[in-house]
Amino acid sequence: MIKRTLEQVANMSNAELSKPELRLENVHGVSIDTRSIQKGQLFIPLPGPNSDGHQFVRQAYEKGAAAAFWKRDMPNPPEDIPLLIVEDPLQAMQDLAQSYRHQTGVKVVGVTGSNGKTSTKDMIAQILSGTYSVQKTIGNFNSQQGLPLTLLALEEETEIIVLEMGMSAKGQIEKLSNIANPDIAVITNIGESHLQDLGSREGIAEAKFEIIKGLNPDGLFIYDGDEPLLQALVNQQNFLFETLSFGKSDTCNLYPVSIQLKGSGTEFVVQAFPTTTMYLPVLGLHNVKNALAAIAVARFLGISVESIKEQLRHLNLTSMRMETHEGLNGSLIINDAYNASPTSMKAAIELVHSLDQYSNKVLVVGDMLELGPKEEDFHKEIGHYIADKHIQHVLTFGPLARNIADGIKDKNQTIEVKEFIDKQELKMAASSLLDGNTVLLIKASRGMKLEELLEGLTS
């Protein structure tokens, strides 16, 4: 974590010390939450939905904080507490993080995309950790607040940090890219998340493409070559940095020539290494694509194919992303309940469809959120997609997911479809379908909390 004197922190964050006589006092880390603040940390008061962090500055100091930011136009600054006076605490934290990033000399890998960015981040960090000292974004600390906090938690001896970059509006990825100044930038794909804010997939692609704004001219830009919107944006540019595409198509720089599901994992061969079979301990073509992006990062950083293969075998993804569990009566439960969009929903359904060793395939699907005015149409489209697959049972949860049920009934009367608004009733119905021939998928947006079904469905 950052360890600097108050004078150094002031210079790095464009702040003014309220007590210059304390300029040589040290700060060890930062915090935005008095509930978890540690002795010696810098407290950063940020506005929240119900309160402003400035009202907790004294509490932070009494709990051991070394100092705190204070917004210049905020009245009544406490005179007995060391303060760093700034125009805006969030901007000051971002400036501090950017300065610290450059002082450490760490290499930065930035990852964004509509789907798969967390899994791709985990894969990149796993592969690189066999050769380098690596840190990565923890949880979903990928926002205007989260990314600077991740950088400020960086240990100075760390060689590479893998940063996830999230957004909900145009300009946000550009801001994060300029803070992090990545040496390698990755766009996993373009889906439909944030259509409510960005209006179209073209708008989403342009917003994700902002990741190149802070990219090192000597760096590498890695993108989904199966996505025409990204390819069109790449074709319009004249980059100083290298570019590399990955995907299913043989027009990409990296693509798989074979993919086989093996138990609860996936074997695949990349055209660039035709004699090497890679193994992922997770299921799905979309995870193979994520692995290709991670492999591209690793090869740019000089990591051998054998080391990549070995590290992928030991992959441990962030929870609720294609987690496999032993279900009741010998069934297989796939928990992919962390989030959902039409793109990721189709990928998960395709996976279940392809698991030929199971004769009874059950989908438990809930609402996909933040899809804008066409949200009902997107859900019905998922129903039409399911109708063409080898699926026996579909259980929907939530008001929007009813449109999935309607879409299935439009095109396929043989799939048994049931709709639920009570989670306990849903769990009872799902458990009654489980046996040794059954695979059951749990998939919905994070707000639906469908992972709560696992207790009662797993052994």
TrEMBL record:
<comment type="pathway">
    <text>Cell wall biogenesis; peptidoglycan biosynthesis.</text>
</comment>
<feature type="domain" description="Mur ligase C-terminal">
    <location>
        <begin position="320"/>
        <end position="446"/>
    </location>
</feature>
<keyword id="KW-0067">ATP-binding</keyword>
<dbReference type="InterPro" id="IPR005863">
    <property type="entry name" value="UDP-N-AcMur_synth"/>
</dbReference>
<protein>
    <recommendedName>
        <fullName>UDP-N-acetylmuramoyl-tripeptide--D-alanyl-D-alanine ligase</fullName>
        <ecNumber>6.3.2.10</ecNumber>
    </recommendedName>
</protein>
<dbReference type="GO" id="GO:0016874">
    <property type="term" value="F:ligase activity"/>
</dbReference>
<dbReference type="InterPro" id="IPR013221">
    <property type="entry name" value="Mur_ligase_cen"/>
</dbReference>
<keyword id="KW-0436">Ligase</keyword>
<keyword id="KW-0133">Cell shape</keyword>
<dbReference type="InterPro" id="IPR051046">
    <property type="entry name" value="MurCDEF_CellWall_CoF430Synth"/>
</dbReference>
<feature type="domain" description="Mur ligase central">
    <location>
        <begin position="111"/>
        <end position="298"/>
    </location>
</feature>
<keyword id="KW-0963">Cytoplasm</keyword>
<keyword id="KW-0961">Cell wall biogenesis/degradation</keyword>
<dbReference type="InterPro" id="IPR036615">
    <property type="entry name" value="Mur_ligase_C_dom_sf"/>
</dbReference>
<dbReference type="Pfam" id="PF02875">
    <property type="entry name" value="Mur_ligase_C"/>
</dbReference>
<dbReference type="Pfam" id="PF01225">
    <property type="entry name" value="Mur_ligase"/>
</dbReference>
<dbReference type="InterPro" id="IPR036565">
    <property type="entry name" value="Mur-like_cat_sf"/>
</dbReference>
<dbReference type="InterPro" id="IPR004101">
    <property type="entry name" value="Mur_ligase_C"/>
</dbReference>
<comment type="similarity">
    <text>Belongs to the MurCDEF family. MurF subfamily.</text>
</comment>
<dbReference type="InterPro" id="IPR035911">
    <property type="entry name" value="MurE/MurF_N"/>
</dbReference>
<dbReference type="Pfam" id="PF08245">
    <property type="entry name" value="Mur_ligase_M"/>
</dbReference>
<keyword id="KW-0132">Cell division</keyword>
<feature type="binding site">
    <location>
        <begin position="113"/>
        <end position="119"/>
    </location>
    <ligand>
        <name>ATP</name>
    </ligand>
</feature>
<dbReference type="InterPro" id="IPR000713">
    <property type="entry name" value="Mur_ligase_N"/>
</dbReference>
<keyword id="KW-0131">Cell cycle</keyword>
<comment type="function">
    <text>Involved in cell wall formation. Catalyzes the final step in the synthesis of UDP-N-acetylmuramoyl-pentapeptide, the precursor of murein.</text>
</comment>
<feature type="domain" description="Mur ligase N-terminal catalytic">
    <location>
        <begin position="27"/>
        <end position="100"/>
    </location>
</feature>
<keyword id="KW-0573">Peptidoglycan synthesis</keyword>
<keyword id="KW-0547">Nucleotide-binding</keyword>
